[in-house]
Amino acid sequence: MKKGLFITLEGADGSGKTTQLKKIAEYFDEHNINYLITRDPGGTDLGLKLRDILLNYEGDVSDNCELLLYLADRAQHIDTKIFPAIERGVVVVCDRHIDSTVAYQGYGRGLDIEKINLLNNIVTHSKKPDLTLLFDVDTDTASKRVGENKDRLESLSKEFHKKVRMGYLELAKAEPERFRVLDANRSIDEVFEQVKDVLDSLVLS
Ligand SMILES: Nc1ncnc2c1ncn2[C@@H]1O[C@H](COP(=O)(O)OP(=O)(O)O)[C@@H](O)[C@H]1O
Ligand SMILES: [Mg+2]
Question: Relative to the CA of 145, which ligand 1 atom is closest?
Fold first, then answer.
C-alpha cells in the first residue's frame, strides 16, 4: 500500500470508534505504514474551538448554525490537514466525517439531506473517503457504554439515536463499495478482528 488513502470511521457514540482507532494505529505501526489519525470535529487548532462550542455550548444553537459549524470545522480540516497529508502519501484515518453530518443533522435532526450533501461536497471538493468503516451498534448498548457523562449530542433522546443508526445503515446500503458495516455489539477484540480483515485486504493488495 504505497499511495495515500482516506479512511473514515463512523457510528454512534459508544460504538467503539476511538477504542478501535488505537488498535488501527498499532496495526499500521506493525506494518510500517505512514498514517495520520485525526477527528471531526476538532482536527485543527481552529477546529478545537469549534468542537468546544459544538459539544459544550449551553445556550440554544439553531440547527443551521450547528450544521455550518460542523462544515466550517471540516473545511479547515480538509484543506489544511487531511488533503495535504493524502497528497504526501499518508494514510489518513478520520474519526467521524461527512456521513456523521448526514446521519445526525439529516436523519437525526431532520435537516434536508440534499442541502447537507451540497455543503459536504463544497467543503470536501466532492472527494469521498476511499473506505468508511461503519461501527453498527444497538442503541441501548451504545448508551450503556457511554454511561453518565454524556455531552450535548449524546444526551439527545433514544428516538434520535435510532434515527441516526437507521440513517447510517441507509448510507451504507447506498454506497456498498465505500462502506464496510461491522458488528460493533461484539467484544473489543471481536470487533477488531473484523477491522483487521478489512485492513489486511488493503495492506496486502
Ligand atoms: N466492543 C466493545 N465492548 C464493550 N465496551 C466497549 C467496546 N468498544 C468500546 N467500549 C467501551 O465503550 C466506551 C465508548 O467507546 P469509544 O471507543 O470511546 O466509542 P466512540 O469513540 O465510538 O464513542 C469506552 O468506555 C470503551 O472502553
Ligand atoms: Mg470517540
Answer: 12
CB 188 near ligand 1, within 6 Å: yes
Q: How many CA atoms lie within 13 A of 1 on its CB side?
A: 20
Distances (CA, A) of 46 to 12, 75, 81, 100: 24, 11, 12, 20
| CB 14 less than 6 A from any atom of ligand 1 | yes
Give the structural domain span for 40: 5-203
Give the CATH number, domain containing residue 74. Answer: 3.40.50.300
At residue 44, the pLDDT reads: 97
Q: Is the CB of 145 under 6 A from ligand 1?
A: yes
> Has residue 152 got a pLDDT over 90?
no
Q: Whose CA is nearest to atom 12 of ligand 1?
A: 145
44-73 tens-digit pLDDT: 999 999 999 998 999 999 989 999 999 999
Task: Give the chain's domain count.
Answer: 1
Confidence label for 129 from pLDDT (cuts 50, 70 and 90):
very high
Ligand 2 centre to CA of 135 (Å) is 11
Q: What is the pTM of this model?
A: 0.94
- Grid coordinates given for 93: 484515518
Q: What is the mean pLDDT of residues 9-22?
A: 97
Q: Which three cell numbers stand for residue 36?
A: 495520520
Peptide bond into 129 cis (omega under 30): no
Ligand 1 lined by 16 (C-beta under 6 Å): yes
